[in-house]
C-alpha cells in the first residue's frame, strides 16, 4: 500500500501542530518542527511495513523530532518525565492517564536496578542510549538491550495489572484493574 503524503498532511497537520504546540515554547519553533516531521514522513513512508500503525509511527516521528529540537538547542526538556505532583498536569490530561502514570512510576521503582537505571536515564532524563552506554561503561548494544528489556518488563507489569482501552492516539480512555489488590496502583 502506498501513501499519499498530501493525504497524510490533510489528516495530520492540525492535530500534530496542536501536539507540538503543547511541547514547545513558541509557534515558530512548532512550525519548524512540523515541517521537519513532514519531511521525515515524506522520506520514509515508503519503508513503513505495518500500515495499520501509521498513526503511531507519525506520532513517534513527531515526538523524536521535538526531542531533537531541544537537544539541538541545548535545552533541557524532559518529555517523558512523570512529575512528582499530579497538579503539574493540565486539567485537559485524562485522569486515566494520570492514574496509570502513577502506576508506571511505581513499576519503574520495582524494576531490577540495571533496568531501572536504564529506563530512568533514557526515558526520564532524555539521555541517549549511546550516552547511557558510556555512563554505565557497557557496549551500545548492551545499553540498548537494557532499555528494551526494561520497557518490556514495564509493559508486562502494566498488562498484568490492568486492562487498558486506548484511543487512536494512544491515550487511555478507560482501564480496569484486573485485581482489587494491585501492588502498583
Walk me through the structure.
This protein is mainly α. It has two domains: 68 residues, Rna Polymerase Sigma Factor, Chain: A (Orthogonal Bundle), CATH 1.10.1740.10; 92 residues, Arc Repressor Mutant, subunit A, CATH 1.10.10.10. The chain is built from seven helices and two strands; from the N terminus they run αααααααββ. A two-stranded antiparallel ribbon has the order 1-2. The radius of gyration is 18 Å and the shape is globular. This is RNA polymerase sigma factor SigZ. One of its GO terms (molecular function) is DNA binding. It comes from Alkaliphilus oremlandii (strain OhILAs) (Clostridium oremlandii (strain OhILAs)).
Q: How many helices in DSSP terms?
A: 7
- Give the CA-CA distance, first to last residue: 42 Å
Strand order of the largest sheet: 1-2
CATH architecture of the largest domain: Orthogonal Bundle
Rg measurement, Å: 18 Å
Strand content is 5-15%
Structural class: mainly alpha
Number of domains: 2
Given as residue ranges, the uncertain stretches (5+ residues, pLDDT < 50) are: 76-94
What pattern of helices and strands is seen along the backbone? HHHHHHHEE
Strand tally is 2
CATH-derived topology of the largest domain: Arc Repressor Mutant, subunit A
Major β-sheet, in short? 2 strands, antiparallel
Q: Shape from CA axes?
A: globular
The portion of residues assigned to helices is 55-70%
Write out the CATH superfamily name of the largest domain: Winged helix-like DNA-binding domain superfamily/Winged helix DNA-binding domain
**Global mean pLDDT:** 78
CATH class of the largest domain: Mainly Alpha
Amino acid at each position: 500500500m502506498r501513501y499519499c503524503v498530501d493525504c497524510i498532511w490533510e489528516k495530520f497537520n492540525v492535530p500534530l501542530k496542536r501536539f507540538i504546540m503543547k511541547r514547545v515554547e513558541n509557534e515558530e519553533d512548532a512550525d519548524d518542527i512540523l515541517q521537519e516531521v513532514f519531511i521525515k514522513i515524506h522520506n520514509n513512508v515508503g519503508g513503513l511495513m505495518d500500515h495499520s500503525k501509521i498513526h503511531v509511527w507519525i506520532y513517534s516521528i513527531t515526538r523524536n523530532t521535538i526531542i531533537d529540537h531541544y537537544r539541538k538547542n541545548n535545552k533541557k526538556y524532559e518529555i517523558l518525565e512523570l512529575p512528582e505532583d499530579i497538579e503539574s498536569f493540565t486539567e485537559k490530561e485524562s485522569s486515566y492517564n494520570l492514574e496509570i502514570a502513577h502506576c508506571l512510576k511505581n513499576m519503574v521503582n520495582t524494576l531490577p536496578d540495571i533496568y531501572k537505571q536504564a529506563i530512568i536515564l533514557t526515558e526520564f532524563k532524555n539521555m541517549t542510549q549511546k550516552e547511557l552506554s558510556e555512563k554505565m561503561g557497557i557496549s551500545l548494544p548492551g545499553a540498548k538491550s537494557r532499555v528494551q528489556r526494561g520497557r518490556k518488563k514495564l509493559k508486562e507489569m502494566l498488562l498484568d495489572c490492568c486492562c487498558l482501552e486506548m484511543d487512536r492516539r494512544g491515550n487511555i480512555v478507560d482501564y480496569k484493574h484486573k485485581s482489587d489488590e494491585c501492588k502498583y496502583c
